Amino acid sequence: MRHNDRAASAPWIRTRLRTAPGAATALAVLVLVTAFLAAAFPRAVDAYETKGLRHDILTADAGRSTLEVARPQPGLELPQAQRNAEARSPELARIGAGLLKALPAPLRADTSSVAYGVRTSKPAVADEPWLPRPEAVPPQLTYVAQSGLEEHATLASGAWPTTPQEVTSDSRAVQGAVTEETAAELKVKVGATITLLTAAQEPITVTITGIVAPRDPRGSYWSADPLLRTPSLVLDTTSPFPVHYWTGTVLLAEDSGPALLSTAAEPVLFWRIPPDPAGLTGPDDARLTSVIASLESGPGLLKVREIAGDTAVFATGLGHIVEANARMRDAISPVIAVAALGIGSVAAVVLLMTGALIAGRRKTELALMRSRGGSLRGIGGRLLAETAVTVLPASALGLLLATLAVGEARWWPGALAAAGVGLLVCVALPLRTTLQHIRPTLHGTREDMVSARPSRRRTVAELTLLVLAVGAVTALRRRGTSAEGGTDLLVSAAPVLVALIAALVLVRLYPLPLRLATRPVARLRGAIGFLSLARAGRSSAGGALPLLALLLALATAAFGGSVIAGIGDARDDAALASVGADARISGASERATLPDELVRAVRDLDGVTGVAPVRVEYSVNMPESVAGDGGADGGGAGTSTSTGSGSAGDPKAAALVGVDPASYAELARATGLPAFPAARLKATGSSAPLPEGAEAGPDRVLPAIASPAVAARLGKEPRAIETLSGDFEVQVVGTVSRVASVSPTDFLVVNSAALEQKAPTTLLLTGAPDPGKLRAAVGGSGKEYAVQLRSEERARYVNTPMQAGAERIYLAAVAAGAGYALLAVLLSLLQTAPERKTLLARLRTMGLTTGQGRKLLAFEATPQALLAAGGGLFTGWATIALLSPGIDLVPLALAGVAGSDTSPVLLRTDLWSLALPAAGVVALAAAVAGIQAWWASRRGSITELRAGDSR
Fold this sequence. Notes:
alpha+beta
């Protein structure tokens, strides 16, 4: 019997696929695209997390990322021969090999850069008279006998240091080398000798036989201890006076380690193991943190001491690098979850709409089968088999394409996502179809949205969703997108819930305007308006499911577009805050002034549209705070609240900024900064400009524009301050939250013409000057000046792999959201396409012209399209407005850039991301209606109106 059933079902499936190949192909393509996106998302997340972890380890300073095992010199109680043997290369190499084998997974070593040897941990004074003494203090040198010198360096001059005879702790002569940078700074030449004293004050002569050049100066071999490569001028902390001395490293021959055992420089044995991040993946960070903690102070350290000795210690900064990477990932993941849940919900609704469209087209066919005795199980089984034949291969192909497109990721998350897509379609379509035929249905029942009344169950379901949405939005506003236990799915789904509630509310409110509009339109002479409104009220294309898909897609696209726009705006603002204008010229020191010739030369350059000379003096002491004074009244003068000041307390020091009010106000307008009240700094009366060379009296009162915190400290009355630009009194006449010339948040702006010292220290430029010509003009002044360009500062905010991956996901979310929105419009119109064709055919027999038919279909689609577009605009705007207080874009925009502003970057609504998808919905609805009317006009009425057709 079962064999016969299978034999009977096979022709049915083949017959159905041959009968409707277009529908089967369209369903397969939709499932293919959706499965590809569903499988690509977790793989893309894994990929950018993996690349981010590897990038952070590779770009970190080698001194932080390198694993180092060290132990003191062999004990003095051991025989001399044993102490010498433990400091030689064979024994050190044997221990190093054991340490490499003992590294626990997922930690792996870069064996090409592993180094071991003996070094002095305490610098030794070098008294040779030819060594430089910048402040009469002799240099202090460290000595290291490290493996692999010839493999990691090239010989610039001289010969490689060797050991002509076996070196022991009794040896008093060894050979060494220095790098080119060390030789240049310390005046070391080939053949020079340096004396290193033993603990018994006996001299060990170190002969410099060669000068070497590192092959990879930034590699871990040379950068784990930068003194190996580059000497340093350091401050002598033991001296009561601020004096400096040189410190550097002498590279001894590889087997010269035993000679250091006799010195008092505290020699240690060491093994430096750089990590190899090539085999690490993003999910490995938790295991990596645990392994490093074990090596530092746990079972792993006991294993290390079994190999290297009981006094061995393990040190690395790799754990901090991994933890910083995990913090960025944890900050980005909740924001990504919002896009993932939004697009996933849209895709699921569109798939359900596709199932509803197929079920509607086959409703009559299945009703006939049901009336002739077909069971629900049998009908559902056939539909399941028919759907699975098309959907499952499409899902598998989508998974394969996602695997090929996004490499280096775990396979099972993508496989589960693609399987979920296939399972949803395979189950939803048969279930949706068979549920319609549990009870026999009368033919021709109306589906008027105007006359439909929601059931109690629907009301309860909608109220439940409303409570969930309100709870999710409230939680997001209070604590942000990141919860203590990780990503909170309910919080991340808040945009989805908001769109869902909006769809349900709009569907309930939709009949009201139709009801109101139908009555006056019915009194008009033409029938087009009345018929279009009547059709719009009866059409199922305006149901909750199509509207939900549109609102979800538009809200997700708006959210993703606003995130992308917010990232760009945050980086632009950070670059402007750092430079202050399109270009900035300043002296090498804070007190260096700019000559007039330089100002004129820069002003005449092509591309320069504005020049604002500014005199900046940092750390000016402020007078004592005025008790009970609320500060200056800045009303009407470009005032701002203190949110941008960043001053949590009372500033005791601030930056004094002397400006030309007119040029500075123009600069503020050109760069988009808060309006600067230039008129309030007019130099008149006691603040009139001083003659050249005249000294200012302490009783002069200068009007000043201050930051909110400084204004609150100074109060409304004149206050005396002492500056390098002169001593005078200031009276705050207005406040601004931000100025272009200084990055500190506490400042005081005065008219530079009223200062005793007027020469500018900074030049702010607007426009787009050529960087090369600008630097050439500045360099032609004969002095060194710093040139900063806003464009170059903006280029510093280059995405790390993790940031770039998250940004690409949001770009894909915007594109996918817009695509699914347009697809939802198309599906909703296709659902009622046969009815509209039949309507046009009937009306043409009654005298309806082709132009009137087009107007009718366009007017019929307009209410649903406008409802979806308007609802999408409102839902997207409301979602961003509600969720923006809980979302900080700093991890996506500015994290990982040294010196960047890390103040919170809130999400802002991007009008283009709201308007373009909504306009696309209206345009597509109009285009589909027009094309359908044109296509129907080409076919005869007899084709649509057949005998016995009940449509």
